[in-house]
Structures are given as C-alpha cells and as structure tokens.
Design a protein that fits this description.
about 300 residues, 4-stranded antiparallel sheet
C-alpha cells in the first residue's frame, strides 16, 4: 500500500509539472484549431481548463467536451464522469480496460492514477483531440495508457477473441445529442460482450437530448440482462450492463463506500451511487413501445440531431 501511495504522489506531481505552464496563461481562449466540423477551442477560466467544440457553421460554443482543474487534476468535475466510475462496483480491481472515446482523457488518467496495475486501451477518432489532451490536460501515454486513432468499433472488431477486458467504457456522445450509431447497436454490444472477461461489465454514456433514451436502454438490455442507470445533474444518462454479476440494491452503497475508502478518490463515488437505479425503478421508460437499435435498421430521424 505504501508503494502505491508513493507512486501516486509521484504521478500526481508529474501531472502537475506537465500542466504548470497553464497557470501562467491569461483567462479566455488560449488555443483554437479547426478539426472536422468544429473548432477545437481551449478556454481558461481561472484554474479551470475547458476543451470546447465550436461548430464552424453556427459558431455555437455551448458544449464543453473535457474539463480540468489545474489545482486538482485527478478530480473528475463532470458528474457524468464520476457516474461512469460506478462501473467499479462490479469489478473493483480491473486489470484491463477498454475505452471508446478519449477526449481530454479525464477518466483514463484517473484510472491510470488510482489503479497502478491496470492497462487502459483507448480509441479516439480525432488525432487533434489526442494532441490537445497531451498538451493541455497533462496526459502522458505509456505502456499502461495507450490510445489508438481509430473508430472504437473497428478497433474491437480487429481484436482477437481471446482479448478480454474487465471493463468496457463507451463515451462517444456529442453535446448536440448525437451518439455514433455504429456504437449504439445490438451488434456492437454483442461485440463488446465477446471481449469482456467473465466478470466484465460495460458502461455507456448517453445523452437525453436526442430523445432515444428508451432505445439505448432496450438495446443494451438485449445483450446485458442486468441493467443499472444513473441520471446525472447534467443531460447524461449512464447505463451499466452486466451478464452474470448483478448487485442487490442494498449492497450498492456499501460497495461504493468500500471502494471510496480504499482509494480515497478526490470525488465522492458514494454520492454518485445514491443516484444509481435498477431498471425496475424506472417506470417512465416505455421499453415495450420502442425498437432495438440494429446495424441494418437505423431510425430515419436518428441523425436529425447531428450538427443542428
């Protein structure tokens, strides 16, 4: 335990050294770069660094993709990122994690910090975003934290069936409500299931704003029979799915407290666990009235939220 604490102290200091130069930067926009349909914009507000996607057509600047507290770089600021860490309730000592969607690298960096034995493989479709994560968010890639510039589904499809992960995270939702359809279908979740270890668990970040919440839940449930949902104070719905490792409602807070006590996260896993619900508690979801997302049967209005 002392060795782990020593390593974490050194790692935290290394992160702070990599981002120290940002403390001296003025408030406001300190970087902007066109990429695809967006300007990738870095904004500083006192000790907060934000990666904002600005739509090139509308110039809307209303979605922060990633955020960093320069004084507390391992603190997960977004409630949805804290909620995604609830996946640890099902596998509290992961050895291998796959994350589709890297962004500023907040969750990968926190996993890398608190779990020194874990290997984290990530995919990100935009090499410019990865470069920003390294320059402005203190991310340093190594043998335990790897990022491939590739579509998240394609990466898994190219993996050997023997490659198994204890945790799979899917965080590819855009602020305008769009979630890549090829990462939202039954076939994709079946692919994830094939690459999960026996006690493996999946967690998916979805957005309420595109109106397909029930479809997301029903599609994931078609592959993972045990479903848990966490609504955050933002617009996110976090869905956790597992095949053979259900947790009783009474044990959720108990396990969250145990994990929090062990790792001393700089955010409260217990607070997020209080918002976690089993699917039977969600009377507002009319799953009988919606369809399962499938590769060859996307809803005609699914892409309406894209860009506009």
């Amino acid at each position: 335990m002392n060795n782990q604490k020593d390593w974490q102290a050194k790692n935290l200091e290394a992160i702070r050294q990599r981002i120290y130069w940002l403390q001296e930067q003025p408030d406001g926009v300190i970087f902007s770069q066109p990429s695809g349909i967006h300007f990738l914009t870095i904004k500083k507000i006192q000790f907060i660094i934000q990666l904002v996607l600005v739509e090139q057509v509308t110039l809307k600047m209303n979605w922060v993709q990633s955020i960093l507290n320069l004084n507390h770089p391992t603190y997960l600021i977004f409630p949805y990122t804290q909620a995604m860490m609830l996946v640890l309730l099902w596998n509290s000592q992961p050895k291998k994690v796959y994350i589709a969607g890297f962004g500023g690298g907040s969750i990968p960096q926190v996993l890398h910090h608190y779990f020194p034995d874990v290997t984290i493989e990530c995919t990100e479709v935009d090499a410019n975003i990865l470069a920003i994560a390294q320059k402005f968010f203190g991310v340093e890639l190594n043998e335990r934290l790897k990022v491939k510039i590739q579509d998240g589904r394609e990466y898994l499809e190219q993996k050997n069936d023997r490659d198994k992960y204890d945790i799979i995270m899917v965080d590819v939702a855009f602020g305008n409500g769009y979630m890549s359809y090829n990462l939202a279908t039954k076939e994709f979740y079946e692919l994830c299931d094939r690459h999960l270890s026996q006690s493996g668990v999946i967690v998916v970040n979805t957005l309420k704003s595109n109106g397909f919440e029930a479809e997301y839940v029903k599609t994931i449930q078609a592959v993972f029979p045990y479903i848990y949902i966490c609504y955050t104070s933002g617009k996110n719905t976090i869905i956790i799915g597992t095949c053979d490792n259900p947790i009783d409602k009474e044990k959720i807070l108990e396990k969250a407290k145990s994990i929090q006590d062990e790792h001393q996260f700089s955010f409260s896993l217990v607070d997020r666990a209080k918002d976690l619900k089993i699917i039977e508690e969600l009377s507002g979801l009319n799953l009988e009235k919606v369809s399962i997302f499938q590769d060859n049967a996307s809803p005609g209005n699914y892409f309406d939220s894209w860009l506009f």
